[in-house]
What does this fold into?
Amino acid sequence: MRHSLTSDSRRGALFLAPLLLLATSPPTLPASPPFDPRSTAAAPCGVGTPPPGHESPELRPADSGITLTVRQDGKRLCYVANGSADAPIIRVGLGSELVVTLRNEITDPTAIDSVSGPGKLLSANEPVPPSDDYYPVVPGKRHRATGATNLHVHGFAVPPVRPQDEVLMTCTDPAVGPARCGQRAFTYRYRIPADMPEGLYWYHPHVHGEVQAQMLMGLSGAIVVEGPQEAARRQAGLRERVLIVRQIQDADAGRPQPAAMTAAPLTPARPAGRAASRAVANAVDTDHELLCARNSGIDAISLNGTPIPLGDAPDSAYAHWQIPENGREFWRILNAATDAFLSLSLVDDKGEALPLQVVAIDGSPLTDDSGALLPPVDTVEPQMVPPSGRLEIMVPAPAPHSRAYLVTHAVDTGCAGDRLPERRLAVIEAVPGPGGSRASAPPAPHRAANLFSGLLARRTVRRRVIVLAEYPRPGSEDQIDFYIAERRPGTVLKPYEMGDPPAITVRAGTTEEWTIENWTHELHAFHIHQVHFRVLQSDGEPVQNSPLLDVVNVPYATATGYHSKEGPVRPGRVVIKVTFPERLAGDIPFHCHLVDHEDNGMMAVLRVLPSRQARRGAAGARRTRPSSGPGDPAAAAR
Ligand SMILES: [Cu+2]
It folds into this structure.
Protein backbone atom coordinates (compact mmCIF):
# COMPACT_ATOMS: atom_id res chain seq x y z
CA MET A 1 0.00 0.00 0.00
CA ARG A 2 1.41 3.33 -0.91
CA HIS A 3 0.58 6.93 -1.27
CA SER A 4 -1.16 8.04 -4.38
CA LEU A 5 0.80 10.26 -6.69
CA THR A 6 0.31 13.90 -7.34
CA SER A 7 -1.76 14.96 -10.28
CA ASP A 8 1.47 15.74 -12.11
CA SER A 9 2.65 12.21 -11.67
CA ARG A 10 -0.69 10.87 -12.79
CA ARG A 11 -0.23 12.83 -15.98
CA GLY A 12 3.12 11.11 -16.30
CA ALA A 13 1.40 7.76 -15.96
CA LEU A 14 -1.13 8.63 -18.64
CA PHE A 15 1.66 9.79 -20.88
CA LEU A 16 3.23 6.37 -20.60
CA ALA A 17 0.22 4.61 -22.10
CA PRO A 18 0.96 5.65 -25.70
CA LEU A 19 4.55 4.51 -25.24
CA LEU A 20 3.37 1.04 -24.32
CA LEU A 21 0.96 0.99 -27.22
CA LEU A 22 3.80 1.77 -29.57
CA ALA A 23 4.80 -1.84 -29.21
CA THR A 24 1.65 -2.83 -31.07
CA SER A 25 2.73 -0.22 -33.60
CA PRO A 26 -0.15 1.73 -35.08
CA PRO A 27 1.73 3.89 -37.60
CA THR A 28 -0.53 6.81 -36.73
CA LEU A 29 1.12 7.31 -33.34
CA PRO A 30 4.10 9.63 -33.21
CA ALA A 31 7.32 7.65 -33.00
CA SER A 32 9.50 8.44 -30.01
CA PRO A 33 12.77 10.06 -31.04
CA PRO A 34 15.66 7.69 -31.71
CA PHE A 35 17.54 6.80 -28.54
CA ASP A 36 20.58 8.98 -28.00
CA PRO A 37 22.08 8.83 -24.49
CA ARG A 38 24.48 11.74 -25.02
CA SER A 39 24.08 14.30 -22.26
CA THR A 40 23.86 17.78 -23.74
CA ALA A 41 22.83 21.21 -22.49
CA ALA A 42 19.50 20.86 -24.30
CA ALA A 43 18.95 17.24 -23.25
CA PRO A 44 20.87 16.62 -20.00
CA CYS A 45 19.57 13.01 -19.80
CA GLY A 46 19.68 12.27 -23.54
CA VAL A 47 16.65 11.69 -25.74
CA GLY A 48 14.37 8.74 -26.44
CA THR A 49 14.12 5.38 -24.73
CA PRO A 50 16.47 2.49 -25.48
CA PRO A 51 15.21 -0.07 -28.03
CA PRO A 52 14.37 -3.60 -26.78
CA GLY A 53 17.54 -5.58 -26.12
CA HIS A 54 19.59 -2.52 -25.24
CA GLU A 55 22.62 -3.18 -23.09
CA SER A 56 23.99 -0.48 -20.83
CA PRO A 57 27.59 0.64 -21.31
CA GLU A 58 30.20 -1.02 -19.13
CA LEU A 59 32.95 0.87 -17.36
CA ARG A 60 36.05 -0.59 -15.80
CA PRO A 61 37.36 2.36 -13.80
CA ALA A 62 41.05 3.16 -13.78
CA ASP A 63 42.73 3.76 -10.43
CA SER A 64 41.78 7.42 -10.72
CA GLY A 65 38.16 6.33 -10.69
CA ILE A 66 35.10 7.59 -12.48
CA THR A 67 32.85 10.59 -12.14
CA LEU A 68 29.09 10.11 -11.95
CA THR A 69 27.30 13.40 -12.50
CA VAL A 70 23.65 13.53 -11.50
CA ARG A 71 21.84 15.63 -14.08
CA GLN A 72 18.18 16.52 -14.41
CA ASP A 73 15.75 17.01 -17.27
CA GLY A 74 12.36 17.88 -15.79
CA LYS A 75 11.13 14.74 -14.10
CA ARG A 76 14.08 12.67 -15.21
CA LEU A 77 17.31 12.22 -13.30
CA CYS A 78 20.32 10.42 -14.71
CA TYR A 79 23.83 9.35 -13.86
CA VAL A 80 26.13 10.77 -16.53
CA ALA A 81 29.52 9.11 -17.05
CA ASN A 82 31.86 10.03 -19.90
CA GLY A 83 29.13 12.16 -21.45
CA SER A 84 26.56 9.34 -21.57
CA ALA A 85 23.34 9.52 -19.55
CA ASP A 86 22.96 5.72 -19.67
CA ALA A 87 23.95 4.68 -16.12
CA PRO A 88 27.10 2.57 -16.58
CA ILE A 89 27.54 -0.98 -15.39
CA ILE A 90 30.63 -0.61 -13.23
CA ARG A 91 33.00 -3.59 -13.27
CA VAL A 92 35.56 -3.95 -10.52
CA GLY A 93 37.67 -6.74 -9.06
CA LEU A 94 37.76 -8.19 -5.57
CA GLY A 95 40.57 -6.65 -3.54
CA SER A 96 40.68 -3.44 -5.53
CA GLU A 97 39.70 0.14 -4.79
CA LEU A 98 36.70 1.68 -6.53
CA VAL A 99 36.86 5.48 -6.66
CA VAL A 100 33.65 7.27 -7.60
CA THR A 101 33.25 11.03 -7.60
CA LEU A 102 29.58 11.94 -7.34
CA ARG A 103 28.67 15.39 -8.68
CA ASN A 104 25.25 16.87 -8.06
CA GLU A 105 23.87 19.05 -10.87
CA ILE A 106 20.22 18.80 -9.88
CA THR A 107 18.50 22.03 -10.84
CA ASP A 108 14.88 21.58 -9.74
CA PRO A 109 14.25 19.89 -6.36
CA THR A 110 10.53 20.72 -6.60
CA ALA A 111 10.22 18.18 -9.43
CA ILE A 112 11.61 15.52 -7.06
CA ASP A 113 9.19 16.66 -4.40
CA SER A 114 6.25 16.27 -6.77
CA VAL A 115 7.24 12.70 -7.66
CA SER A 116 7.54 11.67 -4.01
CA GLY A 117 3.78 12.10 -3.68
CA PRO A 118 1.51 13.65 -1.12
CA GLY A 119 2.01 10.96 1.49
CA LYS A 120 3.96 13.28 3.67
CA LEU A 121 1.75 16.08 4.80
CA LEU A 122 3.10 19.42 5.89
CA SER A 123 1.64 18.84 9.32
CA ALA A 124 2.21 15.87 11.58
CA ASN A 125 -0.17 12.96 11.44
CA GLU A 126 -3.06 12.62 13.87
CA PRO A 127 -2.08 10.42 16.78
CA VAL A 128 -3.01 6.76 17.04
CA PRO A 129 -5.02 6.51 20.29
CA PRO A 130 -2.74 5.44 23.14
CA SER A 131 -3.41 2.20 24.98
CA ASP A 132 -1.71 0.62 27.98
CA ASP A 133 -1.21 -2.59 26.07
CA TYR A 134 0.24 -1.23 22.91
CA TYR A 135 3.43 0.47 21.97
CA PRO A 136 2.95 4.21 21.64
CA VAL A 137 2.83 5.35 18.01
CA VAL A 138 4.44 8.61 16.95
CA PRO A 139 3.04 10.05 13.73
CA GLY A 140 5.30 10.90 10.83
CA LYS A 141 6.27 14.28 9.49
CA ARG A 142 6.80 15.45 6.00
CA HIS A 143 10.24 15.60 4.47
CA ARG A 144 10.29 18.03 1.63
CA ALA A 145 12.67 16.91 -1.12
CA THR A 146 15.86 18.97 -1.11
CA GLY A 147 17.60 17.71 -4.24
CA ALA A 148 20.50 16.49 -2.13
CA THR A 149 21.79 13.14 -3.34
CA ASN A 150 24.44 10.61 -2.36
CA LEU A 151 25.60 7.13 -3.30
CA HIS A 152 24.93 3.79 -1.64
CA VAL A 153 26.73 0.68 -2.89
CA HIS A 154 24.11 -1.94 -2.09
CA GLY A 155 25.52 -5.14 -0.60
CA PHE A 156 29.14 -4.01 -0.37
CA ALA A 157 30.88 -5.36 2.75
CA VAL A 158 32.73 -2.09 3.29
CA PRO A 159 32.63 0.08 6.43
CA PRO A 160 29.74 2.56 6.87
CA VAL A 161 32.37 5.23 7.29
CA ARG A 162 33.52 8.08 5.04
CA PRO A 163 34.84 7.94 2.36
CA GLN A 164 33.26 4.51 1.95
CA ASP A 165 29.57 3.54 2.30
CA GLU A 166 28.43 6.25 4.74
CA VAL A 167 24.89 7.29 3.73
CA LEU A 168 23.46 8.91 6.87
CA MET A 169 25.52 12.10 6.83
CA THR A 170 27.36 12.22 3.54
CA CYS A 171 25.52 13.98 0.72
CA THR A 172 25.98 16.50 -2.06
CA ASP A 173 23.99 19.69 -2.61
CA PRO A 174 22.00 20.47 -5.75
CA ALA A 175 22.95 23.33 -8.01
CA VAL A 176 20.25 25.51 -6.45
CA GLY A 177 19.08 26.26 -2.91
CA PRO A 178 20.75 26.17 0.49
CA ALA A 179 23.98 24.21 0.94
CA ARG A 180 22.97 21.67 3.59
CA CYS A 181 25.55 19.05 2.69
CA GLY A 182 28.36 21.62 2.38
CA GLN A 183 29.60 20.22 -0.94
CA ARG A 184 28.45 19.78 -4.51
CA ALA A 185 30.67 16.75 -5.09
CA PHE A 186 32.07 13.93 -3.00
CA THR A 187 34.67 11.30 -3.82
CA TYR A 188 33.89 7.84 -2.46
CA ARG A 189 36.79 5.41 -2.10
CA TYR A 190 35.50 1.87 -1.62
CA ARG A 191 38.16 -0.67 -0.66
CA ILE A 192 36.55 -3.87 -1.82
CA PRO A 193 37.73 -6.70 0.40
CA ALA A 194 39.33 -9.68 -1.32
CA ASP A 195 36.99 -11.89 0.72
CA MET A 196 33.73 -10.13 -0.19
CA PRO A 197 31.31 -12.40 -2.10
CA GLU A 198 31.76 -11.91 -5.87
CA GLY A 199 28.75 -11.12 -8.00
CA LEU A 200 26.15 -8.49 -8.85
CA TYR A 201 25.79 -5.38 -6.68
CA TRP A 202 24.36 -1.96 -7.46
CA TYR A 203 24.34 1.75 -6.69
CA HIS A 204 21.54 4.19 -5.96
CA PRO A 205 20.86 7.33 -3.90
CA HIS A 206 20.11 7.02 -0.18
CA VAL A 207 19.05 10.46 1.04
CA HIS A 208 16.28 9.64 3.50
CA GLY A 209 12.87 10.89 2.35
CA GLU A 210 13.65 11.14 -1.36
CA VAL A 211 15.04 7.73 -2.30
CA GLN A 212 11.86 6.59 -4.04
CA ALA A 213 11.49 9.77 -6.10
CA GLN A 214 15.13 9.86 -7.18
CA MET A 215 15.07 6.18 -8.16
CA LEU A 216 11.77 6.47 -10.05
CA MET A 217 13.23 9.45 -11.89
CA GLY A 218 16.10 7.28 -13.09
CA LEU A 219 18.90 6.93 -10.53
CA SER A 220 20.24 3.38 -10.27
CA GLY A 221 22.97 1.30 -11.86
CA ALA A 222 24.68 -2.08 -11.61
CA ILE A 223 28.09 -3.02 -10.23
CA VAL A 224 29.72 -6.33 -11.15
CA VAL A 225 32.32 -7.44 -8.62
CA GLU A 226 34.59 -9.96 -10.30
CA GLY A 227 36.56 -12.79 -8.76
CA PRO A 228 37.71 -16.35 -9.52
CA GLN A 229 34.24 -17.54 -10.58
CA GLU A 230 34.03 -14.78 -13.16
CA ALA A 231 37.53 -15.56 -14.42
CA ALA A 232 36.54 -19.21 -14.94
CA ARG A 233 33.41 -18.25 -16.85
CA ARG A 234 35.32 -15.85 -19.06
CA GLN A 235 37.96 -18.47 -19.77
CA ALA A 236 35.18 -20.85 -20.80
CA GLY A 237 33.92 -18.28 -23.29
CA LEU A 238 30.55 -17.97 -21.62
CA ARG A 239 28.42 -15.06 -22.85
CA GLU A 240 27.26 -12.81 -20.01
CA ARG A 241 24.38 -10.31 -19.85
CA VAL A 242 23.38 -7.81 -17.19
CA LEU A 243 19.61 -7.26 -16.94
CA ILE A 244 18.38 -4.30 -14.90
CA VAL A 245 14.69 -4.07 -14.03
CA ARG A 246 13.66 -0.59 -12.95
CA GLN A 247 10.34 0.88 -12.00
CA ILE A 248 9.23 3.89 -14.03
CA GLN A 249 6.27 5.07 -12.01
CA ASP A 250 4.32 4.42 -8.86
CA ALA A 251 0.82 4.90 -10.14
CA ASP A 252 -1.28 3.03 -7.67
CA ALA A 253 -3.78 5.00 -5.70
CA GLY A 254 -4.03 2.97 -2.51
CA ARG A 255 -7.58 2.99 -1.20
CA PRO A 256 -7.65 1.34 2.21
CA GLN A 257 -10.93 -0.12 3.41
CA PRO A 258 -10.93 0.34 7.14
CA ALA A 259 -10.75 -2.90 9.11
CA ALA A 260 -11.44 -4.96 6.03
CA MET A 261 -9.21 -7.84 7.00
CA THR A 262 -9.59 -8.32 10.72
CA ALA A 263 -11.98 -7.52 13.49
CA ALA A 264 -9.34 -7.25 16.14
CA PRO A 265 -10.47 -6.62 19.72
CA LEU A 266 -9.54 -3.25 21.10
CA THR A 267 -7.24 -4.91 23.62
CA PRO A 268 -5.87 -8.44 23.72
CA ALA A 269 -7.12 -10.82 26.39
CA ARG A 270 -5.48 -9.95 29.69
CA PRO A 271 -4.94 -12.41 32.56
CA ALA A 272 -7.68 -12.07 35.16
CA GLY A 273 -6.85 -9.81 38.08
CA ARG A 274 -4.16 -7.93 36.23
CA ALA A 275 -4.93 -4.25 36.28
CA ALA A 276 -4.78 -2.41 32.99
CA SER A 277 -2.56 0.26 34.47
CA ARG A 278 0.08 -2.34 35.33
CA ALA A 279 0.21 -3.93 31.89
CA VAL A 280 3.48 -3.54 30.05
CA ALA A 281 3.09 -2.43 26.46
CA ASN A 282 4.32 -5.31 24.39
CA ALA A 283 2.08 -5.47 21.36
CA VAL A 284 1.35 -3.84 18.07
CA ASP A 285 -2.05 -2.18 17.88
CA THR A 286 -3.47 -4.14 14.99
CA ASP A 287 -6.93 -2.68 15.48
CA HIS A 288 -5.71 0.66 14.27
CA GLU A 289 -3.06 -0.65 11.98
CA LEU A 290 -4.34 -3.37 9.74
CA LEU A 291 -5.97 -2.30 6.54
CA CYS A 292 -6.51 -3.76 3.14
CA ALA A 293 -6.31 -1.74 -0.01
CA ARG A 294 -7.92 -2.11 -3.37
CA ASN A 295 -5.13 -0.90 -5.57
CA SER A 296 -6.13 0.31 -8.97
CA GLY A 297 -2.86 0.86 -10.77
CA ILE A 298 -0.22 -1.47 -12.13
CA ASP A 299 3.20 0.11 -12.12
CA ALA A 300 5.25 0.27 -15.28
CA ILE A 301 8.68 -1.35 -15.22
CA SER A 302 11.55 -1.33 -17.67
CA LEU A 303 14.30 -3.75 -18.67
CA ASN A 304 17.64 -2.08 -19.38
CA GLY A 305 15.72 1.17 -19.90
CA THR A 306 13.10 -0.21 -22.32
CA PRO A 307 9.51 -0.03 -21.04
CA ILE A 308 7.99 -3.50 -20.61
CA PRO A 309 4.55 -3.95 -22.22
CA LEU A 310 1.64 -4.97 -20.06
CA GLY A 311 -0.63 -7.65 -21.45
CA ASP A 312 -0.33 -9.10 -24.93
CA ALA A 313 2.39 -7.64 -27.12
CA PRO A 314 4.29 -8.98 -30.10
CA ASP A 315 7.70 -10.54 -29.50
CA SER A 316 9.25 -7.52 -31.22
CA ALA A 317 8.34 -5.41 -28.18
CA TYR A 318 10.82 -7.35 -26.04
CA ALA A 319 14.53 -7.86 -25.85
CA HIS A 320 15.32 -10.68 -28.23
CA TRP A 321 18.41 -12.67 -27.38
CA GLN A 322 19.91 -15.56 -29.28
CA ILE A 323 21.83 -18.40 -27.68
CA PRO A 324 23.78 -20.97 -29.72
CA GLU A 325 21.99 -24.33 -29.87
CA ASN A 326 22.93 -26.55 -26.92
CA GLY A 327 24.80 -23.65 -25.39
CA ARG A 328 23.99 -21.37 -22.54
CA GLU A 329 24.51 -17.88 -21.22
CA PHE A 330 25.15 -16.38 -17.83
CA TRP A 331 22.62 -13.70 -16.84
CA ARG A 332 22.97 -11.30 -13.95
CA ILE A 333 19.55 -9.88 -13.07
CA LEU A 334 19.09 -6.85 -10.79
CA ASN A 335 15.71 -5.86 -9.38
CA ALA A 336 16.21 -2.09 -9.06
CA ALA A 337 12.43 -1.47 -8.85
CA THR A 338 11.29 0.84 -6.08
CA ASP A 339 8.71 -1.62 -4.80
CA ALA A 340 7.93 -4.32 -7.39
CA PHE A 341 8.80 -7.92 -6.50
CA LEU A 342 9.91 -10.22 -9.31
CA SER A 343 9.17 -13.95 -9.54
CA LEU A 344 11.36 -15.08 -12.40
CA SER A 345 11.13 -18.15 -14.63
CA LEU A 346 12.09 -19.28 -18.07
CA VAL A 347 9.06 -20.65 -19.89
CA ASP A 348 8.43 -22.09 -23.34
CA ASP A 349 5.83 -20.70 -25.70
CA LYS A 350 3.15 -22.81 -23.99
CA GLY A 351 4.03 -21.33 -20.62
CA GLU A 352 5.74 -24.50 -19.31
CA ALA A 353 8.67 -23.80 -17.03
CA LEU A 354 12.13 -24.58 -18.39
CA PRO A 355 15.03 -25.45 -16.09
CA LEU A 356 17.55 -22.83 -15.12
CA GLN A 357 20.56 -22.96 -12.79
CA VAL A 358 20.96 -20.51 -9.96
CA VAL A 359 24.60 -19.46 -9.61
CA ALA A 360 24.40 -16.59 -7.12
CA ILE A 361 21.86 -14.59 -5.14
CA ASP A 362 22.39 -11.06 -3.82
CA GLY A 363 25.93 -11.01 -5.16
CA SER A 364 26.92 -14.17 -3.36
CA PRO A 365 27.68 -17.52 -5.06
CA LEU A 366 25.67 -20.36 -3.52
CA THR A 367 27.83 -21.96 -0.86
CA ASP A 368 27.39 -24.05 2.25
CA ASP A 369 28.33 -22.52 5.58
CA SER A 370 31.97 -23.54 5.18
CA GLY A 371 32.25 -21.72 1.87
CA ALA A 372 32.18 -24.79 -0.40
CA LEU A 373 30.22 -24.16 -3.59
CA LEU A 374 26.92 -26.02 -3.71
CA PRO A 375 26.62 -28.24 -6.78
CA PRO A 376 24.64 -26.52 -9.54
CA VAL A 377 21.02 -27.64 -9.58
CA ASP A 378 18.52 -27.32 -12.40
CA THR A 379 15.29 -25.86 -11.10
CA VAL A 380 11.92 -24.96 -12.57
CA GLU A 381 10.79 -23.17 -9.39
CA PRO A 382 10.05 -19.47 -9.84
CA GLN A 383 12.81 -17.36 -8.31
CA MET A 384 11.53 -14.61 -6.02
CA VAL A 385 13.64 -11.46 -6.24
CA PRO A 386 12.54 -8.72 -3.81
CA PRO A 387 13.21 -5.07 -4.60
CA SER A 388 17.02 -4.58 -4.48
CA GLY A 389 17.67 -8.34 -4.79
CA ARG A 390 19.84 -9.97 -7.45
CA LEU A 391 19.65 -13.31 -9.20
CA GLU A 392 22.48 -14.77 -11.31
CA ILE A 393 21.54 -17.73 -13.47
CA MET A 394 22.69 -20.01 -16.25
CA VAL A 395 20.21 -19.81 -19.09
CA PRO A 396 20.20 -22.81 -21.45
CA ALA A 397 19.30 -22.37 -25.10
CA PRO A 398 15.72 -23.47 -25.80
CA ALA A 399 15.15 -26.43 -28.12
CA PRO A 400 16.16 -25.76 -31.74
CA HIS A 401 13.51 -23.84 -33.69
CA SER A 402 11.63 -22.86 -30.55
CA ARG A 403 11.43 -19.80 -28.38
CA ALA A 404 11.53 -19.32 -24.66
CA TYR A 405 10.69 -16.33 -22.51
CA LEU A 406 11.99 -14.76 -19.35
CA VAL A 407 8.86 -13.95 -17.37
CA THR A 408 8.01 -12.53 -14.01
CA HIS A 409 4.99 -14.33 -12.61
CA ALA A 410 2.14 -12.63 -10.79
CA VAL A 411 3.11 -12.04 -7.16
CA ASP A 412 0.64 -12.15 -4.29
CA THR A 413 1.81 -9.17 -2.27
CA GLY A 414 -1.02 -9.38 0.28
CA CYS A 415 -4.39 -7.67 0.40
CA ALA A 416 -2.74 -4.32 1.09
CA GLY A 417 0.02 -4.82 -1.46
CA ASP A 418 0.36 -3.83 -5.07
CA ARG A 419 -0.96 -5.62 -8.11
CA LEU A 420 1.89 -7.44 -9.81
CA PRO A 421 0.54 -9.32 -12.83
CA GLU A 422 2.57 -11.75 -14.91
CA ARG A 423 4.73 -10.03 -17.50
CA ARG A 424 7.12 -11.20 -20.18
CA LEU A 425 10.53 -9.57 -19.97
CA ALA A 426 12.58 -11.04 -22.85
CA VAL A 427 12.52 -13.54 -25.70
CA ILE A 428 15.21 -16.20 -26.10
CA GLU A 429 15.87 -18.11 -29.27
CA ALA A 430 18.29 -20.92 -30.12
CA VAL A 431 20.41 -20.32 -33.21
CA PRO A 432 22.91 -22.55 -34.97
CA GLY A 433 26.36 -21.40 -34.01
CA PRO A 434 29.71 -22.35 -32.62
CA GLY A 435 30.70 -22.34 -29.01
CA GLY A 436 27.51 -23.70 -27.59
CA SER A 437 28.67 -26.96 -26.10
CA ARG A 438 32.14 -25.60 -25.34
CA ALA A 439 30.60 -22.97 -23.11
CA SER A 440 28.41 -25.36 -21.20
CA ALA A 441 30.88 -26.55 -18.57
CA PRO A 442 32.99 -23.77 -17.11
CA PRO A 443 35.57 -25.19 -14.72
CA ALA A 444 34.75 -23.19 -11.62
CA PRO A 445 36.76 -23.21 -8.40
CA HIS A 446 35.16 -25.40 -5.75
CA ARG A 447 35.31 -22.93 -2.94
CA ALA A 448 33.96 -19.45 -2.61
CA ALA A 449 34.61 -18.80 1.07
CA ASN A 450 34.05 -15.19 2.10
CA LEU A 451 33.94 -13.08 5.22
CA PHE A 452 30.46 -14.40 6.05
CA SER A 453 31.44 -18.07 5.78
CA GLY A 454 31.07 -19.96 9.05
CA LEU A 455 28.16 -17.76 10.11
CA LEU A 456 25.87 -20.67 11.01
CA ALA A 457 28.58 -22.30 13.13
CA ARG A 458 29.03 -19.20 15.27
CA ARG A 459 27.44 -18.95 18.71
CA THR A 460 24.30 -16.82 18.82
CA VAL A 461 24.82 -14.30 21.61
CA ARG A 462 21.42 -12.63 21.41
CA ARG A 463 17.97 -12.99 19.90
CA ARG A 464 15.84 -9.99 18.97
CA VAL A 465 12.42 -9.43 17.46
CA ILE A 466 12.10 -6.67 14.89
CA VAL A 467 8.60 -5.50 14.01
CA LEU A 468 7.33 -3.95 10.78
CA ALA A 469 4.13 -1.92 11.11
CA GLU A 470 2.05 0.65 9.25
CA TYR A 471 -0.49 3.12 10.50
CA PRO A 472 -2.82 5.01 8.19
CA ARG A 473 -3.65 8.53 9.15
CA PRO A 474 -7.11 8.64 10.65
CA GLY A 475 -9.61 10.15 8.27
CA SER A 476 -7.25 9.87 5.35
CA GLU A 477 -7.46 7.38 2.53
CA ASP A 478 -3.90 7.05 1.41
CA GLN A 479 -1.60 8.66 3.95
CA ILE A 480 0.42 6.05 5.77
CA ASP A 481 3.33 6.10 8.17
CA PHE A 482 5.73 3.16 8.22
CA TYR A 483 7.62 1.76 11.19
CA ILE A 484 10.43 -0.65 12.04
CA ALA A 485 11.44 -1.21 15.65
CA GLU A 486 12.82 -3.78 18.02
CA ARG A 487 10.11 -5.28 20.24
CA ARG A 488 11.12 -4.76 23.85
CA PRO A 489 9.75 -2.98 26.91
CA GLY A 490 9.65 0.74 26.35
CA THR A 491 9.54 0.53 22.56
CA VAL A 492 8.00 3.51 20.83
CA LEU A 493 6.96 3.16 17.21
CA LYS A 494 8.39 6.22 15.53
CA PRO A 495 9.13 6.81 11.85
CA TYR A 496 12.86 7.23 11.28
CA GLU A 497 14.08 10.80 11.05
CA MET A 498 17.56 11.81 9.98
CA GLY A 499 19.83 12.08 13.01
CA ASP A 500 17.81 9.66 15.16
CA PRO A 501 20.00 7.73 17.61
CA PRO A 502 20.75 4.07 16.85
CA ALA A 503 17.84 1.74 17.61
CA ILE A 504 20.14 -1.18 18.41
CA THR A 505 23.76 -1.31 19.59
CA VAL A 506 25.94 -4.41 19.32
CA ARG A 507 29.61 -5.30 19.69
CA ALA A 508 31.58 -6.18 16.58
CA GLY A 509 32.45 -9.84 16.35
CA THR A 510 29.11 -10.96 17.81
CA THR A 511 26.41 -13.02 16.11
CA GLU A 512 22.66 -12.64 16.59
CA GLU A 513 19.35 -14.11 15.45
CA TRP A 514 16.68 -11.64 14.46
CA THR A 515 13.04 -12.55 14.00
CA ILE A 516 11.55 -10.04 11.58
CA GLU A 517 7.79 -9.78 12.12
CA ASN A 518 5.47 -8.31 9.51
CA TRP A 519 2.27 -7.05 11.17
CA THR A 520 0.88 -5.63 7.93
CA HIS A 521 -1.09 -7.10 5.04
CA GLU A 522 1.57 -6.51 2.44
CA LEU A 523 5.01 -7.91 1.72
CA HIS A 524 8.06 -6.03 2.90
CA ALA A 525 11.69 -6.56 1.94
CA PHE A 526 14.07 -6.39 4.91
CA HIS A 527 17.53 -5.11 3.98
CA ILE A 528 20.55 -4.43 6.13
CA HIS A 529 23.57 -2.55 4.82
CA GLN A 530 27.16 -3.85 4.93
CA VAL A 531 26.44 -7.48 5.88
CA HIS A 532 25.01 -10.64 4.33
CA PHE A 533 22.91 -12.97 6.49
CA ARG A 534 21.31 -16.40 6.21
CA VAL A 535 17.64 -17.22 6.75
CA LEU A 536 16.88 -19.88 9.39
CA GLN A 537 13.08 -19.91 9.16
CA SER A 538 10.28 -18.42 7.08
CA ASP A 539 6.77 -18.44 8.57
CA GLY A 540 7.81 -21.16 11.00
CA GLU A 541 9.27 -23.45 8.34
CA PRO A 542 12.98 -24.19 8.60
CA VAL A 543 14.95 -22.99 5.57
CA GLN A 544 17.59 -25.43 4.36
CA ASN A 545 20.71 -24.17 2.62
CA SER A 546 19.71 -20.54 2.80
CA PRO A 547 21.93 -18.52 0.51
CA LEU A 548 23.77 -15.52 1.90
CA LEU A 549 21.36 -12.64 1.37
CA ASP A 550 21.32 -8.90 1.89
CA VAL A 551 17.56 -8.57 1.45
CA VAL A 552 14.75 -10.96 2.39
CA ASN A 553 11.05 -11.06 1.67
CA VAL A 554 9.02 -10.89 4.91
CA PRO A 555 5.65 -12.67 4.46
CA TYR A 556 2.52 -10.66 5.20
CA ALA A 557 0.36 -11.15 8.29
CA THR A 558 -2.70 -13.35 8.29
CA ALA A 559 -5.96 -12.97 10.16
CA THR A 560 -6.44 -15.84 12.60
CA GLY A 561 -9.77 -14.90 14.14
CA TYR A 562 -11.01 -13.36 17.35
CA HIS A 563 -10.66 -16.48 19.50
CA SER A 564 -7.31 -17.68 18.25
CA LYS A 565 -4.78 -18.51 20.95
CA GLU A 566 -2.19 -16.33 19.22
CA GLY A 567 -4.57 -13.37 18.99
CA PRO A 568 -6.51 -12.01 16.04
CA VAL A 569 -3.49 -11.60 13.81
CA ARG A 570 -0.46 -13.75 13.16
CA PRO A 571 2.44 -11.73 11.82
CA GLY A 572 4.49 -13.01 8.91
CA ARG A 573 7.93 -14.00 10.19
CA VAL A 574 11.43 -14.72 9.02
CA VAL A 575 14.31 -15.60 11.31
CA ILE A 576 17.77 -14.58 10.16
CA LYS A 577 21.24 -15.16 11.56
CA VAL A 578 23.64 -12.30 11.15
CA THR A 579 27.16 -11.52 12.29
CA PHE A 580 28.88 -8.15 12.54
CA PRO A 581 32.53 -8.32 11.48
CA GLU A 582 34.99 -6.05 13.25
CA ARG A 583 36.02 -4.26 10.08
CA LEU A 584 32.42 -3.19 9.35
CA ALA A 585 31.94 -1.38 12.67
CA GLY A 586 29.96 1.84 12.51
CA ASP A 587 26.35 2.96 12.06
CA ILE A 588 24.61 0.48 9.75
CA PRO A 589 21.14 1.30 8.39
CA PHE A 590 18.48 -1.40 8.13
CA HIS A 591 15.15 -0.80 6.44
CA CYS A 592 12.43 -1.99 4.15
CA HIS A 593 13.61 -1.87 0.53
CA LEU A 594 10.21 -0.90 -0.77
CA VAL A 595 11.80 2.50 -0.80
CA ASP A 596 8.60 4.48 -0.31
CA HIS A 597 8.25 2.64 3.02
CA GLU A 598 11.86 3.47 3.85
CA ASP A 599 11.34 7.13 2.98
CA ASN A 600 8.28 7.22 5.21
CA GLY A 601 9.96 5.85 8.26
CA MET A 602 10.50 2.08 7.95
CA MET A 603 14.21 2.47 8.64
CA ALA A 604 16.49 2.38 11.68
CA VAL A 605 20.18 2.32 12.54
CA LEU A 606 22.27 -0.46 14.07
CA ARG A 607 25.41 0.76 15.81
CA VAL A 608 28.25 -1.77 15.70
CA LEU A 609 30.81 -0.80 18.33
CA PRO A 610 34.38 -2.02 18.00
CA SER A 611 34.89 -5.15 20.08
CA ARG A 612 36.48 -4.74 23.48
CA GLN A 613 39.50 -6.59 22.19
CA ALA A 614 39.90 -4.20 19.26
CA ARG A 615 39.47 -1.20 21.57
CA ARG A 616 42.11 -2.53 23.94
CA GLY A 617 44.34 -3.17 20.96
CA ALA A 618 43.88 0.39 19.75
CA ALA A 619 44.47 1.82 23.23
CA GLY A 620 47.61 -0.26 23.59
CA ALA A 621 48.82 1.00 20.26
CA ARG A 622 48.26 4.61 21.34
CA ARG A 623 50.16 4.09 24.60
CA THR A 624 53.12 2.41 23.01
CA ARG A 625 53.34 4.35 19.76
CA PRO A 626 55.51 4.67 17.84
CA SER A 627 57.45 1.57 18.78
CA SER A 628 54.59 -0.89 18.31
CA GLY A 629 51.33 -1.06 16.38
CA PRO A 630 47.78 -2.22 16.85
CA GLY A 631 48.85 -5.78 16.17
CA ASP A 632 51.06 -5.75 19.28
CA PRO A 633 50.27 -9.09 21.00
CA ALA A 634 51.10 -7.66 24.41
CA ALA A 635 48.52 -4.91 23.93
CA ALA A 636 45.92 -7.36 22.63
CA ALA A 637 46.46 -9.68 25.61
CA ARG A 638 45.57 -7.07 28.22
CU1 LIG B 1 8.02 -2.23 3.22
